[in-house]
Amino acid sequence: MIIAVCVDDRMGMLFNHRRQSRDKFVIDDLMNIAEKVKINGFSEELFEDYKERIEIDEDFLENAEREDICFVENIDLEPYADKIDKVILYLWNRHYPSSLKFKVDLSDYNFIEETEFAGNSHEKITREVYSK
């Protein structure tokens, strides 16, 4: 499976059940890459402009196939590490408090590319792509 995750500089994903950011340009960037994205209900509001191209499933990580792109905000990914073939990280380039961290060991992956762009809430967002 392919996962897309937003993290801060300390790999934080979520703080006290709240997302760290809701930058629309990140979602636009992801949807330029993906034909369809699997999410859970927590992320649904972020994909308001792309309703026809999302699949909402509370067990989306369990049910994901190899080529499925899954946007993850509020789930610990460590138990799914063996299923993850590719990682798309969106880095906020900031330090935020966090209670959920991205803990997948990226040393098992090859760095593929890095792209920077301006977001609507952050002046610089970095997209990094890793593949097994």
What can you see in these coordinates?
- The chain has 132 residues and is mainly beta.
- It is built from two helices and ten strands.
- The protein has a five-stranded mixed beta sheet with strand order 6-1-7-10-9, with no helix packed on it. A three-stranded antiparallel beta sheet has the order 3-2-8, with no helix packed on it. A two-stranded parallel sheet has the order 4-5.
- The model has no long low-confidence stretch (mean pLDDT 94).
SSE layout and pairing:
Layout lengths: L1 E6 L4 E4 L2 E2 L4 H10 L3 E3 L14 E3 L3 H4 L5 E4 L13 E6 L8 E2 L8 E8 L7 E7 L1
Parallel strand pairs: 1-6, 1-7, 4-5
Antiparallel strand pairs: 2-3, 2-8, 7-10, 9-10
Total DSSP E strands: 10
Overall helicity: 10-25%
Distance N to C terminus: 11 Å
Shape: globular
Query: Widest sheet: strand order?
Result: 6-1-7-10-9
Largest sheet: 5 strands, mixed
Radius of gyration: 13 Å
Poorly predicted runs are none
Query: In what range is the share of β-strand residues?
Result: 25-35%
Structural class: mainly beta
Number of helices: 2
Question: Averaging pLDDT over every residue, what do you get?
Answer: 94
What string, H for helix and E for strand, traces the elements in order? EEEHEEHEEEEE
Summarize the structure.
The protein has 132 residues and is mainly β.
Properties at a glance:
132 residues, single chain, three-stranded antiparallel β-sheet, 2 helices, five-stranded mixed β-sheet
